[in-house]
Specification:
Length: 369
């Protein structure tokens, strides 16, 4: 990719390009990557909005495909200079089986790596997750940690297990010779809880509040802080990392980077209220209204109901043993590694991120004040 930006036009592939994060990565590439000649958007479910992107100067190629199918991945990767691999099954609510989560998140990532090696694509940016680190099954807090903070990463849930193994595969592949004899250069970005336009869980919280007459009931102490990052800044970090990976291969290759910005440290529920409050909802209780043991019981009851009802209907509420444990464990990051390694600075301020998210929630739910 060494030619000047004006001369060579590059081919990028974004897997999961129609997802919550993927769509923002696609749009950010079109706005902020001047070397882009072709943008391939690979997803199991293609969004109708892709059509509007085909009228611009960059060739946008929509590819309906499945990352678990190696031949489909290889066909999509062939000829690409850069792959940004965001596709994944983001399920902590028991909607998919552990086997399916593993198949998509782990085998799908293996297929992307092997496709890069076989076809000669040299640059791979992987969307990992904070969950690769924690919170662990012991409920140990991770307070203002960074990429080098010691922490006992112990997982049992299929989602974090799959993300941890997939990240390991990507980092392990750094330096492998691809077709043509040059080395593969990989890095992994670890977003904390992403929020912003298109965040379905935020919409689920709004709907839950509506069902309860405009009230949400505090379940988690305000003192339990959870790191959050705006989707636009996560997308920008992906674009920048992909751009800098060639020039800074020795420094960035095989590295992990937490995704961060100026979003404030708050409990998951208090943070959500930054957006749901202006949409008319209220969070009841300065402290959790129910004792923790009762929440544990209700979460377990939800898990039992999900298991009993599975043959008939998918019952997947927000509260389950895993989401309660994660929500109830402090996990915040404080780092500048991405800034030091490839000059990342958040593109969107907290104020801008908040406003954009509020406007989206209002439009998505018809709750404009
Ligand atoms: N949402 C969050 O808070 C965080 C997400 N992440 C990671 O970011 C990435 C994107 O997550 P989101 O945008 O939130 O999820 P999402 O579910 O909105 O997007 C994932 C996309 O991948 C596609 N996909 C799923 N299985 C596929 C398959 N077999 N073949 C092809 N495409 C497939 C889906 O159709 C979807 O468009 C994931 O890898 C996730 O692990 C990491 C940290 C936080
Ligand atoms: C019902 C209440 C206990 C409520 O507070 C539960 C909130 C719960 C749904 C969320 C709390 C923390 C979230 C997770 C966190 O942001 C880390 C994540 C990283 C990812 O890679 C994917 C999403 C998630 C697991 C995210 C999912 C929703 C929460 C568990």
């Amino acid at each position: 990719m060494a030619d000047s930006a004006q001369a060579q036009k590059l081919v990028y592939l974004v897997t999961g390009g129609c997802g919550f994060l993927g769509e923002h990565v696609v749009r950010m590439l079109l706005q902020r990557e001047p070397r882009l000649g072709e943008l391939r958007v690979f997803d199991r479910h293609l969004g109708p909005w892709l059509e509007e992107l085909k009228t611009g100067p960059v060739r946008v190629t929509a590819i309906q495909g499945d990352v678990t199918q190696a031949h489909e991945v290889a066909a999509a990767v062939a000829g690409a200079h850069v792959v940004i691999h965001t596709a994944g099954l983001v399920d902590v609510f028991g909607r998919a089986s552990p086997e399916t989560i593993h198949e998509v998140n782990v085998q799908g990532t293996r297929n992307v790596i092997e496709a890069c090696v076989q076809t000669g694509t040299r640059f791979l940016v992987y969307t990992s997750s904070m969950e690769v680190v924690g919170p662990n099954t012991k409920g140990h807090p991770f307070y203002r940690g960074n990429e080098d903070t010691p922490y006992e990463a112990v997982h049992r849930h299929p989602y974090p297990c799959s993300k941890a193994l997939a990240e390991w595969l990507v980092l392990e592949a750094n330096g492998r010779k691809v077709r043509g004899g040059l080395p593969l250069v990989t890095c992994a970005l670890r977003p904390t809880g992403i929020y912003g336009e298109g965040h379905q869980i935020m919409r689920d919280f709004y709907r839950q509040g509506l069902r309860l007459g405009g009230w949400l009931f505090r379940a988690i102490p305000a003192s339990v802080e959870h790191g959050r990052v705006y989707v636009g800044n996560v997308a920008w970090m992906h674009v920048l990392a992909a751009r800098e990976l060639e020039q800074r291969a020795a420094l960035m290759g095989g590295q992990v980077y937490f995704c961060y910005d100026g979003s404030p440290y708050k409990s998951y529920e208090d943070f959500n209220m930054e957006f749901l409050g202006p949409c008319g909802l209220r969070l009841v209780g300065a402290r959790p209204l129910l004792p923790y043991w009762l929440l544990v019981f209700l979460a377990a009851l939800n898990a039992l109901l999900q298991w009993l009802l599975r043959p008939l209907v998918l019952y997947a509420p927000l509260l389950n043993p895993y989401t309660l444990a994660v929500a109830n464990t402090t996990f915040t990051v404080s780092t500048d590694k991405a800034q030091r390694h490839f000059g990342y600075e958040p593109m969107f301020s907290w104020e801008d991120s908040r406003t954009r998210t509020i406007l989206w929630v209002q439009a998505a739910t018809g709750s404009a004040q």
